[in-house]
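Anyone have tokens for Sigma-54-dependent Fis family transcriptional regulator? Sequence:
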Amino acid sequence: MNQREILAFIDRLRKARTFEDAAHTLLRAMLDAALAALAESSFAGRGKILRGMAHWRPGDGYRRLVLLDDTQRGGEPTINYLPSVSAWRWVVTRACPIAIDVPLGRVWTRQNESANVFQEGGFSGQDSVLRLTSRDTSHLYAIPLRTLHGAIEGMATVEAGCPRAVGDDFIFPAIHESLELLADLAAPYLATLPPRPAATGATDDLLPVMGQSMAGLIDMLRVFAQQEETLLIGGPTGAGKSRLARWCHARSVRREAPFEVLDLIAVPEELQMAELFGWKKGAFTGAVRDTPGCITRAFKGTLFIDEIDKLSLKAQAGLLQLLESRTYRPIGDGAREQQANVRFIVGSNVDLYDQVKAGRFREDLYYRINVLPVQIPPLDERRDEIAEWARFMASRRHRESVPGGEARIAAGVETLLGEHAWPGNLRQLDNVVRRAYALALMTHGEAGSEILLEEKHFARALSYERGSGRRSTLDDLRVAAGAIVEEAERQQGKGLVFDLDLCDAFRGLVLGTAVERLGSRDAAFRLFGKGAQVQARNHHKMLRRELEKVEALCKALGEESGPFRELRDDEA
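Reply: yep, here.
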């Protein structure tokens, strides 16, 4: 790329307002570079540049997925497949770009400005090769997307179809420097720009409510549901992981086969292997007959393993072997191993990588199930859904008693529910709705075809909830002020003075929290009416000044490291 092209590319990135805008800018430039290289190569007229893909995948799950497909004409490209999971593993493991000859499974990787060829078959198993070749991909180039502090949190790929070039270097060695430069220039924008507002889309019986806050995640899950790779659904207890797992099964190629659930929180450790694999009569005390396990019962379907962090280390080893070999043997069965024809979805309400570091979860199993990770936000971050979920739950409850009946919620209920915290998520909300429904029955007598749940019913139902009452913002601020006063009194007792000017750090705490929640500096400043600073590009300097005040407060409080470390590192 010449200087003029680079400056024009940067100008387009600066004009981008969303992650998707910047991703399309990056992918278009990468595809154009590949098209130009192909036209000048010995394979001109004998191959095609097919598509580019960009995904943003921080540690806890996928956040964004963008496709630019030159084989589709008209309209927005439909995403019906994923960036190669195997390519992602190679990029993260080697921390550098890779080129893949798909039919041969051969990987070239560039490290220290030299090309190294790995063995044939080093790319992945036959399933991954078949998935890529089924979309006419013979060659793939994958580039890491790094944050400003160097962490790989995404990947951009270019796919090409050129059967004549199988076994050849193809075009990527000639343009790798240009593609890597484009990715490095675009990555900081991708890391900070907000997502494009997603359409809420159609709902159904399994997913009856979908607010703006969940629409982007559901768009990705529609793609993930059609894959055979393991899907990891994270999120707090009661947020709806099992419902989404069943929803994904209903949209998969296995939808006509069983959906089996193994909730490990209800299974003693000594029985976990047996519940997974089944057992033969006499295998242990109490095994009075042959009993199929979850793997057998889910044959050709989906197995959802919830609370996977509760799996014992012994059972983790057994599950790892199952995932890698796709074979298993029931407890006490001396016959040959059986094939496991099942798609796995796993759920967890804890950070599994923290469990790995603590020695409670196998690292190799973590990487084996962390293929398609998504994170469901708590209900308190999906407040646009609360009232709709309450209406759905009330109607469902009423129809259990009166088929075809209708339950309505009074106008003031939405505000009332919005003023409360929901640490128990959808499960807690369902309990409140059931309680309000029972109170409404007491008011109206026996259930008729229609019933109105009034504000007073919900107010009383909520009164039984411990810790769910939401204080006003002013009350919360007074609590924070009280903590500062107590700290000042402690320091006074030591003969020290707590400088009142340190309270100016509150602005930095607010801004830092907003950046973390929204994932974008620009969006955080616009949230508080500072769009002019964003337009003038002065907000980065302002944020740095405010975070310095937060750091000064942390030092005064004796904290070794305050919050927003990554934001401060990015500013460095």
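The radius of gyration is 27 Å.
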